Amino acid sequence: MALLAVSQLTKRFGGFTAVSNVSFDVEDGEILGLIGPNGSGKSTIFNCIAGMYVPTSGSIRFEGQEIAGLSADKVCHRGIGRTYQIPRPFRNLTLLENVALSAWFGQQRAVSRAECWRQAERALALVGLPTDAGATTDGLGAGALKQLELARALATQPRLLLADESLNGLDHAETEQAADMLQRIRTEMKITIVWVEHIMGVLMRVVDRVVVLDHGEKIFDGAPKAAQADRRVVEVYLGADAAA
Amino acid sequence: MSAPRLSPAALAGLLAVALLPWAVRLFLGDSEKYYLHLLIQILLWSFIYTGWSLMGRFGLTSLGHGAFSGIGAYVTVLLWNFAGVSPWLGIPVAVVAATIVGVLVGYPCFRLRIAGHYFALMTLALTEFVRLCIVGLRDYTGGSLGTQPKRYGDGLSLYAMQFEPDRMLSFYVAFALWLFGLYVWRHVDRSMDRYALDAASQDEDAAASVGIDVTREKLKITALSAAMCALGGAVFGQYQMYIGPDTIAGLGTSLNIVFAVVAGGMWAMLGPTVGAVFTQLLSEGLRVVIQSSGILKSVLGSAALALDSAIYGLLLVLFIIYMPKGIVGTLLERRRQARPARVARAETPPA
Asked: Which sequence spans correspond to the domains of chain A?
C-alpha cells in the first residue's frame, strides 16, 4: 500500500480550476519530485495535502486513512511535516525555541519536554544551524532560513516530509546542498519525501520518480530519465519547437 | 509542576512588599487607612492587569476585560444579595460565568481569525454589552449608580467574605491574590503553550503546520485571562463594598487596564504591577493637585475634575510612541544592553 495516495484531486478557486483530477501515489521510502512550471498546480496540491486548502473533490489517503479536509495541525499530527517555499520563521523566538515547540506540538505532547529540547538540538545540528540557546533568526540568510524550515518540520517527527523548494531563493551550491540534505534525511531518518520544485536540474539527481504537472493536470509520472525524454514534458519546459 | 524557586533578590522584594503595611503603620500612622487603601488598590489592580497581560502579550489586545471583572463582581454580589449565596460559592460561579463568556466570544473570533483591530472591536462590544446588561437590570444591579453587597454583621465575616473594615487583613488578601497572579504568569511564561502563542501571534499558518491547534491555544489563554479578571473583580467588589459600572465593569475599566499594562510593560512579569503603581499614583496625584489648585478650579470650574482623563489619554499616546515596551520592558532592555554578554531573561525582576 502506498504511504500517500492522492486520487482524482480537484481544487477550484471560484471559476478557476487550479488542480484538475490529479492522481498519484507516494511509496514508502521514496523521494518523489513534484514538478511543473509556475502556476501548474504544484503548490495547490501541496497545500491540499498539508491541510491549508480543502479540496473541491477527490481523496487524499495517508497510511490508508482519509486526510483531505483535515486542518493543518491535524495533518501534522498524522505524521506529515511541511516546509514553506518562502520561509516563515517565528522571529520572536530563538532558533531552538522554533524547533522545540514543533517537537512538542507536532508530537502532541507525547514526549517529555526535556526530550523535545534534545530533539530540537539534533534537528538543528542535522540541518547545520547553531544549537546554542541564544541563537536567533536575526541576520540569517535565505539558505539558513530554509534550513530552519526543514529543522522545524523534522522536529515534528514526520513519516512524510513535504518539502516546498519551488523558489529561486538559493544559489547553485545551496541547491546542491539542499538536495544532499534531503537524501540524507531519507536514508538516515527513513522519512519519505515529496519534493516540490519548478526546475528540473538538481532534482533529477536525487529523486526516484517524478510527477510532472502542467495547467493543473498530470502529464507525466515515472523515472526522471524518462521524463527528460518525454515529448510533453520537454514541450512544457522548453516549448513546442524543442519537442518537435 | 515544580514549586517556583526564588532568587534572593526576589525573596527580598516579596518580603519588602509583605512588610509595607507595617512600614505605613510605623511612619504614616496618621493617615494609615488612606495609604493602606492605596496599596490594596494597587495590588488588586495588579492582579487584574496581570490577567489581561496574559492575552495582551500575545497580540490578543482585548478592550473587553472590564466585562470579565464586571461579571466577576456583579455575579458574586447579586448571588449574595438576592440568593444569600456566600461568595465562597458565588465567586467560583462568577469566575466560571466569565470564563464561559470569554470562550463564547473568543471561539468565533479565533475560528474566523479575527485579530488585531477587529478583535479589539469585538471585545469593545462585549464591554458595552455587559454594561448595558448591568444598567438594564437596574432593579437588581442598581443601574449606573451601582450597588453594595449586603453587610453581614459588623462587616467582618469569613462566611460573607467581608473584610473591608480591617485594612491590614484586606492588604494581605490583596497581597495573596497578587502573588497568585504572578505565579500564574510565571507558569504560563514557562509553559510550552507560551511558545505556541508567541508563534501563532506571528504566523498562524506556520504555527498550525507544526501541529499547534491555534484556536485551542488562544481559547485556553482567553479562558485563563477572563477567569483571573473575574476573580480580581469579585474580590475588588468585596473589598470596596461597592460595585458600579464605572468602577469595575465599563469601558473606562477596560481602557484603564490596557493603559496601565502598556505603561508598565506587557512582556515582563512585573510590568502590570508597575503599571498599577504608576496609574494609581498618577490618578491620586492628579486628583490631589487638581482639587487643591485654586487656579485650575477658577479657570476650568468643575471641568478641572476631568483633567486627569485628558492627561491619561495624552500619556497613553506618549507611551505607545516612545515606550512601547512599557516602563519595566524598557528598563530590562537598558540593563541587557549594558551587559550584552549575559543573556538576560525578561522574568528577572527589576532591582
From this structure: 1-79+159-244, 88-157
